[in-house]
Write a structure and sequence with these properties.
By secondary structure, this protein is an alpha+beta fold. It contains 22 helices and 13 strands. The strands form four sheets. It has a seven-stranded mixed β-sheet with strand order 3-4-5-2-1-8-9. It has a two-stranded antiparallel sheet with strand order 6-7. A two-stranded parallel ribbon has the order 10-11. Helix 13 packs across helix 15. It is elongated and about 80 Å long.
Amino acid sequence: MIAPMASFPDLVQRLCSLPYAAPVGAVVPHAWIVGGAVRDALLGGVPEDLDLVVEGDAVEAAQKLAAALDGELTVHDRFGTATVIGGGHVYDLASARAETYARPGALPDVRPGTLEEDLLRRDFTVNAIAASLDGRVAAAPHAFEDLDGRVLRVLHDASFLDDPTRLLRLVRYATRLRFGVEPGTEALARAAVATGALATATPTRVGGELRLLLREPSAARALAWVAAWEGAPLGIALGFDAAVAERALTLLPPDGRRDLLLLGSACRLVAAASVKAWSDALGFPGRERDVVVACADAQGIERRLAAAVRPSEIAAVVRGVAVEAVALAGALGAEPLAPAGGQRAEPVARAWIDDLRHVTLAIDGDDLLAAGVPQGEAVGRGLAAALRARLDGDAPDRATQLAIALAAAP
């Protein structure tokens, strides 16, 4: 349960006791800690980073804080905000402000405002609580009761129309915090999705919010929620199978990207060209886009893997393919690798991910050149033949690998 009003000094004391909050009180005494840090502290957590609202010039305050922390300062001129990174923590500072929207989905036009106006412009009531380091607490209406009831509520009826990316934030917070959605807010969200509100925001803003959602521990639940929206409001028709995604995650190695696998699994029924164009529009970096596109072809990869018998044939199918796509193909049911020497059969995708992709040769191109092979295609041909033999268990040592490479090179 949320602490009663009388115990709010405990909240302030808890925030003040954070070693990375102390410099704020010393350097920016007129700052308020707001948003997720206060919410999480009231829920019993320990916030890692601090969002600060300054009654005054936030940039000037950030400069003082950066100097005190010997930290890195970044100023965002359009909004009069700044970010300070110091001591392993992030401080986002903004002047108290009010905002209006020229049209649905546009970036806000901001002006200096009061703390009350600043709280009322936020996305959900539970994020509209502020605590000053001198002991004061302020909150938007319903904030404490909603935190107590573990529900998300918007602060006004046009919230999702003004900023449609709040729809994705609703999903992200609800699944991360395991909060419900207040009935009126749920109806507003459904209406905003149905009327295409997300299309009024720039694709890069939607993409940025989607990437935040995908990085959450609760991303699978969140993606299932988003994929269930009707009418492809994100621009393509996502289809998410939680069981397939869970199987794929069990195959994903530590060097794989969980977030990209999940998104790719939701795109696997969409043409790869459409996934590529969509990912580009949402601002995914090239390497991340390529992983998602590769996952869209997971069914084709699975069919080719199912036809592979020898380890070298598996390698021919998936060499150069993103490991996330191989894991997803495995989750779709690639046939097990035929057992050798009485050993237990191993799933094809796992065989590649855990073992085969790490197989290397004891020789290299210099060995072939030293043996008289002319530089060029012959070297690559010889090494490829040696690697195939090595994968299939026919060239376990250097001498055998070199002999096979030399025989294949001419």
